[in-house]
Amino acid sequence: MPSKKVTVDIQGTSLTLSNLDKVFYPQTGFTKGQVIDYYIRIAPALLPHLSNRPLTMKRYPDGATAKFFYQKQCPDHRPDWLQTAPVWSEHNDDHIDFCLANNLPSLVWAVNLAALELHTSLSAANDVLCPTMLVFDLDPGPPASVLECCQVALLLKAIFDQQHLQSFPKTSGSKGLQVYVPLNKPVTYDITKAYARAIAQLLEQQHPELVVSKMTKKLRTGKVFVDWSQNDDHKTTVCVYSMRAREQPTVSTPVNWSEVEQAFKDKNAQLLTFEAPQVISRFEQLGDLFAPVLTLKQELPPLK
């Protein structure tokens, strides 16, 4: 049965959208049309964080609870107006042409491909070996939860405060938290990765009952894995404001440190769970809490 299609005008660009009534989140009835609507409405906050960054699309053709695949190479059937960026891949011994979601038509086009999740590089397409930020991905090993992640995130913040570095938390939209340190000055992944690893190992030494810095999964039970390895030119991290493929239409959401503290104090993980409509309301009320990550210039201290 042919899919129902509709042609729309997005900022002067004609796009054909399909399967808008298809349910992408079966538990809630949240449809593909609602996913696209969310991305259009959050675009003023999201697009600056996508702009000029190689985009990896995590595509869910049959919805959030069905099979998915990652797409790095921008599809051959992309429109002529869509910008791309060639990035050398040692693994493939060739360039990969990544899509760039630099404007609203590009974003809507990608989401219409069922790119439910948007994952980006820590560097810009014009200098892929120079990260503009540092990230710590906090992943709880059950029975640990996002609340233990809050505890570790606050420990990270204390370290950064001592080093006169501003840091910014966001929910992963899944089960953990992520902490970003904006740099926006010339630096290499060798430097950022070594720094992140040293911080993770320091936390593990100081809090062995809570933190693990090694990737071995059997070590993570009841602890928080501080994933420093994301600081790599071959890795991507879920973009702020991206939806996630969970049972509910949750979003990777920027939060204030006070919200992290309150959730940990109250032992209430729900305080850090945000679905798409809530995220739009938060942006309307609070603006983009992650905006400084794009502009704040900071330097990492030398490793001792």
UniProtKB/TrEMBL annotation:
Residues of the DNA ligase D polymerase domain: 31-290
InterPro entries in the cross-refs: LigD_pol_dom, MtLigD_Pol-like, NHEJ_LigD
Record-given protein name: Bifunctional non-homologous end joining protein LigD
Upper taxonomic lineage: Bacteria, Bacillati, Bacillota, Negativicutes, Selenomonadales
